[in-house]
Design brief:
Number of domains: 2
Largest sheet: 5 strands, mixed
Number of helices: 10
Number of strands: 11
Order of helices and strands: EHHHEHHHEHEHEEHEHEEEE
Strand order of the largest sheet: 4-3-7-9-8
Strand content: 15-25%
Distance between the termini: 37 Å
């Protein structure tokens, strides 16, 4: 799947209705895309029966995702099975039966060669350290408290916290949710809430945060995040661990720092008030 390519393409424009078509070659590759297109044309021309599932799957999915103005390439993963199916259908239909065994062998060799080339030239990226940070916080944090996280890979940290079955009592709060209003991604709009350093420290205490896991330098071109980092180096907090985050690519971070809150931490609040910028709504959850 091709990166995190996204764009705002209105469903009221023709660009909004061809955006996902433009993403398929970068996701499936041009050879497979062209085979899939040719297979679909062949199936329609010959009126091959029994393909309603594949036609509807692609059409309904395409219309659904295209009707959403915020487009993300990863959404069209659900369209790719139909592309692959029609490509295979084309090959299956056109290869003569007498060449079947040779065709199967050639196809198997092509698949193996593609897998080997992909593994060699495009290894799976990784960043280590998040499981270790979650384990350390799970060991230190009091029961029924909140852990605050500030960093680029909040999903990695939250996943590793949730994977620790013995500490389901802990909640994770993102610092950017407290300090900023972000519409899906920062590139699509960000609002700084203007809390002072004193207000940030008080909000951390009020939300039952005993430990903070921070990626140094995260979004510090924003004044709100600069204030947050200044709070972390104040007398209210102390460093208890520094965890390296080695990676096999040029990652955003080099370490995670765990801070202990020495302030007057209140009991964790019951329920949550969640702001959903993407739909401009605020909901309350118990």
């Amino acid at each position: 799947v091709a990166g995190v390519a996204d764009a705002v393409a209105s469903r009221a424009s023709w660009q909004g209705w061809v955006w996902y078509l433009q993403q398929i070659p970068s996701q499936a590759g041009w050879p497979l895309t062209l085979l899939g297109l040719a297979g679909a044309i062949m199936a329609a021309w010959r009126r091959i029966p029994g393909l309603g599932f594949w036609w509807l799957g692609f059409a309904v999915g395409y219309l659904f995702f295209s009707a959403i103005d915020l487009k993300e390439a990863r959404h069209s993963v659900f369209l790719l099975p139909s592309v692959v199916f029609f490509a295979v259908l084309l090959v299956y239909t056109l290869v003569p039966p007498r060449l079947g065994h040779w065709a199967h062998a050639a196809l198997a060799m092509l698949v193996l060669a593609t897998v080997a080339l992909t593994v060699w030239t495009r290894p799976v990226f990784y960043v280590q350290g998040y499981a270790q940070a979650a384990a350390e916080v799970a060991r230190l944090a009091p029961r029924d408290s909140t852990v605050m996280f500030s960093g680029y890979r909040d999903g990695s940290f939250v996943f590793n916290m949730r994977a620790r079955e013995g500490r389901r009592d802990l909640q994770v709060m993102r610092a950017d949710k407290l300090l900023l209003g972000v519409a899906v991604r920062r590139e699509l709009g960000v609002e700084q809430k203007g809390l002072t350093e004193v207000e940030i420290a008080e909000a951390i205490n009020a939300n039952g945060v005993h430990y903070v896991v921070m990626q140094p330098g995260f979004w510090t071109d924003l004044e709100a995040m600069q204030r947050f980092e200044r709070v972390m180096v104040s007398d209210q907090f102390e460093v208890v661990a520094r965890i390296a985050t080695p990676a096999n690519h040029k990652a955003h971070e080099t370490e995670l720092v765990i801070y202990r809150n020495k302030g007057a931490v209140a009991p964790r609040r019951q329920g949550a008030d969640i702001e959903l910028k993407i739909i401009n709504r605020r909901i309350s959850a118990d």
